[in-house]
Specification:
Layout: E1 2-13, E2 16-27, E3 31-35, H1 42-49, E4 57-62, H2 71-77, E5 78-80, H3 93-101, H4 110-116, H5 132-144, E6 150-154, H6 162-177, E7 181-186, H7 189-195, E8 198-203, E9 206-211, H8 213-219, E10 224-230, H9 236-240, E11 245-251, E12 254-259, H10 263-272, E13 278-285, H11 288-296
Parallel strand pairs: 3-7, 3-8, 5-6, 6-7
Antiparallel strand pairs: 1-2, 1-4, 8-9, 10-12, 10-13, 11-12
Bound molecules: adenosine-5'-diphosphate (ADP).
Adenosine-5'-diphosphate (ADP) binds at residues 13, 16, 18, 36, 38-44.
Length: 301
């Protein structure tokens, strides 16, 4: 079932067309990513979905609701992660949770939620004294407190160190496992590739492609490269006879083979048939960055 439908969304600020033409659908239960460089129109898009901004054109439906007309009903189904800086410095973790819970008729048990986001031992800590990662996790808990069916998480891991980022990714996966559909806004390719079931690539206010991460990479060729140093001389012909291989290049002793499909196992097998071992074997695959570059002519980051 489609839980979110966005058709030809358009949003203009006084001097800037932030969203020109954005369409996508989110299925219930998925982690849907909106990936694009800074300024692409991602936040404006999700603010229109959450009813925080009024679109100038197109239609948005969330569980059939119009975010602008049906704001009160929407609040019961959609949780938006607010930028954590919006909280007062002196508010304690438990107070923030208790306050937000009071906004909903049937809130989640905030003690349980506090444990789930790993803030159980920070219950009495003030917002000011939380680390960046702890603040992000608190903002996620606040987005979930109304038991939403959809949670929108915007640039969740920006500014976090690698460990805090990985912890946050795990939290996002747990939230999905609990049955919540997630819309994840990010400009961070690795995050989109790791977490999202499907994603829309957005550039300059338009969707350039929507697919699974692997599908997007495959759309632009899905080329792989395998580099190695053979244990004994190998003829190009041996490698070019492998159906997956398209090209063989050499640099000194190093051989680089490009191609697609199950390239690395196919090459390793062909070498083994000639009693050759590939030393220093490296496999390089195309990434979402490569896909974005191929689709827009620009680098994602
Ligand atoms: P993203 O989330 O992809 O970084 P945004 O949706 O925040 O992009 O912004 C898209 C464009 O709209 C940017 O060029 C930004 O400067 C502009 N913009 C965002 N918010 C406003 C606003 N309140 N008033 C005017 N321009 C804005």
């Amino acid at each position: 079932m489609k839980i979110i439908e966005v058709r030809n969304l358009r949003k203009k600020y006084p001097n800037h067309l932030a969203v020109e033409d954005v369409s996508f659908e989110v299925a219930e239960g998925e982690i849907f990513g909106i990936l694009g460089p800074n300024g692409a129109g991602k936040t404006t898009t999700v603010e229109c979905v959450a009813g925080l901004r009024k679109a100038d054109g197109g239609t948005v439906r969330v569980t059939g609701l119009d975010p602008h007309e049906d704001r009160d009903e929407l609040r019961q189904v959609l949780g938006m992660q607010l930028q954590s800086a919006a909280l007062p410095e002196k508010i304690k973790v438990w107070e923030a949770l208790d306050l937000y819970a009071s906004f909903y008729p049937d809130p989640a048990d905030w003690t349980e939620l506090m444990e789930r986001v790993g803030l159980g031992d920070k219950r009495d800590t003030t917002f000011k004294k939380l680390s960046g990662g702890q603040r992000q996790r608190l903002s996620v808990a606040l987005a979930l407190i109304g038991r939403p069916r959809v949670a929108v998480l915007d640039e969740l891991t920006t500014g976090l160190d690698p460990q805090a980022r990985r912890d946050t990714w795990e939290l996002v996966e747990q939230i999905r496992e609990s049955g919540v559909t997630i819309v994840l806004v990010t400009h961070f390719m690795e995050e989109a590739e790791r977490l999202c079931d499907r994603l829309a690539l957005i550039d300059a206010g338009k969707v350039v492609a929507t697919d699974t991460p692997a599908g997007l990479i495959a759309q632009v060729g899905g080329e792989q490269r395998v580099r190695f140093r053979p244990s004994a001389p190998v003829d190009d012909a041996v490698l070019l006879a492998v159906p997956e291989v398209r090209e063989v290049r050499r640099s000194g002793e190093q051989v680089t083979v490009s191609g697609s499909g199950n390239l690395a196992p196919a090459v390793t097998l062909a070498l083994a048939q000639h009693q050759i071992v590939p030393g220093d074997l490296r496999i390089e695959q195309a990434t979402l960055d490569d896909a974005f570059l191929a689709l827009t002519g620009r680098k994602l980051s």
